Amino acid sequence: MAEPKYSIIINDIKRLISDGTFKPGEKIYSEDELKKKYNVSNTTVVRALHELVRAGILARYQGKGTYVSKSIINEEVIFNEYTTVPNGRFNRKTKIANEHTRVVAINEIQDARIAKKLQIPPENMIVHFQRIRLIDDLPWTVQNNYMAKSNLINVDLTNFEKFNSLSEVIKELYDINILHEAMKERIEVEFPVKDKNNFKLLEIDTELPLYHIERITYVPEGQPYEYIESYLRHNFYSIEIEKKKQ
User: Fold this and answer.
1) Which residues form the signal peptide (predicted)?
2) What is the largest CA-CA distance in the chain?
């Protein structure tokens, strides 16, 4: 099947921006120029430009024309996550010397909401690992890891201590490094907190906001392999955003 003309225009404009032919803030071809260049109707041109505007790649101004967006095109944006603890501030990827993990529970469950995240039938069994991350004896993160039971065949789930590092278990058993696989993460401040048990697990007496982080990790085939819901003490976590020109 031939590629639609509007799609060809979209991809060509993206390429011209990527290779620097059109730079952020510069005016691109007019509608008439695009119609002649691709021998298409005005409707096709408008559709292509609309898609690029909606994606934030182009900006259109009445009576002036169409321009490459000045936003973050051709810029490098770096997100750094930090853990702030009594003895310092550390990048989230850094292993803190006095940090350790304790498994609270391992259960086999059926949950339609979690199954949808893992893209499996709602009746399928799911293994739920509930763990607490501590710095010294102070709990700062409640972490709920969910995996399809079918991905944990012949795994002894009774040895809690073995699953203090779930990623190492998966690497050892299946040669999958889930820390390096593709993932999608969503971070928000939750208040009021829906599940009050998180305060008990974090040993917090007063209801305070918590960071709520959702993450889905994908295996190379694109299938969700693990879904994580974490709740963090609000004063132990921060995000720093750095933008660099390329």
Assistant:
1) none
2) 70
